[in-house]
Fold:
Amino acid sequence: MLAALLAGFLIFSGGDGFAAKMFGKETRAQVRQVVSDPERADSAVLTLELGQQDLEAIGKKFATIVKDFGEADEDQVAGFDDLLPYLQMASEQRRVVQERSLDRMFDLRRILTEAEWDALYEGIREPN
Amino acid sequence: MRVPMSRLPGTLGLAAVLLPAIVLWAGSKDDRDPAAELRAHIREVVADAPRASKMLAAVDEIEAAVGELDILITGERASLRALLLDHGSTRAAVDASLEQFNTRHEALARRCLTAHCALKAEATAPEWKKLRKLELELMTFAASRSLGQAESSGKEG
Structure:
């Protein structure tokens, strides 16, 4: 759960786990309601599942970076130059997860009709 | 929202590495103001006025950067939403939007990290021992909200 939240955070930076929701169980259930064609629904659900797996894998990497950062930061002497590499690694991971998640989102958009995509997206909208 | 102390180091790491996390405390409905608490403790713990002043400036800098991050994130959310709901939008357009966001995001994260390090560097070891937990709480508070672990406002994103 935390890995998914972290990954959601990485993608949309504080977006209340938007990506985690996008690829989460609720969205997959919603696909079944929104998409009447079983074949396309299966394909869409598979895409969401793959997105979830991506998030979890990258979330684990990010958690490692966070842990390493925390350990380095324990030392009061550790300064900007010591800690910057962790920030850079985390930023790199954020870019990776953004790219992979967008790959999945665009795959999903190709599978769904415009009306289905709109319905699904509305269901996972972020609060303003 | 309370985060177990055992999770604080990791969460501080999260916050200090990326730090946009701190963002949402500014718009929080929670009554707590961890930044104010940290300032109050700096005034209480650090007797040396010039150093205390530098440390308070570091907290101000974190708050300022957080405010900018908040605006940045809000803008990017709206931009991505519009792009993703536009059936004619291209992947290149989304990538370009995110690239611009990432560049600004990373610059603000560096500012936050710089301020965090400045705060740490100004403190003596005994002072830092007393202040560290509060800074952790400040970071954790915001990171948790940003991660969606805080109390829900009733709408989920």
